[in-house]
């Protein structure tokens, strides 16, 4: 009777493992929304816990069969053979569920990381857009133009590392068929805005550099002219002080 019960327990355990494999391991890996992916991750976590909890039952079965084999070798031997099959299948099921759970957790982590990098770069684009707008309607002063140019250049020196991460994370998920439509849409919108703002910012940078150069050249010309006028004023004052006749002065002084 004990052998019959143990045989029944082994059959039930094998049946449970078959159902667990069908329920947890034969589902499609393609997830089209973050909600579907998150639900799948949580489901696999529960599956892993559920399977690992059966370890106690498996151990009890193993101990009982060993005890029976010690008392009734003939019955125990047949059960031991069945037990080995169940143990192998159980270990395989544990490994596969652990593997799928780990994979889904990595995919979810990849998705969250992508969103974080997109948030960082979107904040940078907002800052870039703000600096570009600040270059409009500047007062016609050298300091104002120079400050605006330096402010814009400081934002443009933003490293490209985050954009590289966005591209690689997005491509990894898309290649795996994970959230591909949503990610493609997000990347397309981000890249379009990045290209537009970057082009506009560089154009404004060039325009400010040219404006600054022109203002510096104009200021230099004015400075030279002021110095020449000051020298001429000094000479004229000297001539007047010395009561020099106008016709004795150099032509430019006359």
TrEMBL record:
The keyword Coiled coil applies. Signal peptide: none annotated. Keywords: Coiled coil. SUPFAM superfamilies: Spectrin repeat. SMART domains: SPEC (SM00150). Residues 3-64, 208-242 form a coiled coil. Pfam families: Spectrin (PF00435). This is Utrophin.
């Amino acid at each position: 009777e004990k052998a019959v019960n143990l045989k029944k327990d082994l059959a039930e355990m094998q049946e449970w493992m078959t159902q667990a494999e069908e329920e947890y391991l034969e589902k499609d890996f393609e997830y089209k929304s973050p909600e579907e992916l998150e639900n799948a991750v949580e489901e696999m976590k529960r599956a892993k816990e559920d399977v690992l909890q059966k370890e106690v039952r498996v151990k009890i079965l193993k101990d009982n069969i060993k005890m029976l084999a010690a008392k009734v070798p003939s019955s125990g031997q047949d059960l031991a053979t069945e037990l080995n099959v169940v143990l192998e299948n159980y270990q395989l099921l544990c490994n596969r569920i652990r593997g799928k759970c780990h994979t889904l957790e990595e995919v979810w982590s990849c998705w969250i990381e992508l969103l974080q990098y997109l948030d960082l770069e979107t904040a940078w684009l907002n800052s870039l857009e703000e600096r570009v707008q600040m270059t409009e309607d500047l007062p016609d002063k050298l300091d104002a133009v120079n400050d605006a140019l330096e402010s814009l250049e400081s934002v443009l020196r933003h490293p490209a590392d985050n954009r590289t991460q966005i591209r690689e994370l997005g491509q990894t998920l898309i290649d795996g068929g994970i959230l591909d439509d949503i990610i493609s849409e997000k990347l397309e919108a981000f890249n379009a805005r990045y290209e537009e703002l970057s082009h506009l910012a560089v154009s404004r940078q060039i325009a400010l550099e040219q404006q600054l150069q022109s203002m510096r050249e104009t200021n230099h010309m004015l400075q030279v002219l002021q110095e020449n006028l000051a020298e001429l004023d000094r000479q004229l004052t000297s001539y007047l002080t010395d009561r020099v006749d106008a016709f004795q002065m150099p032509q430019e002084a006359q």
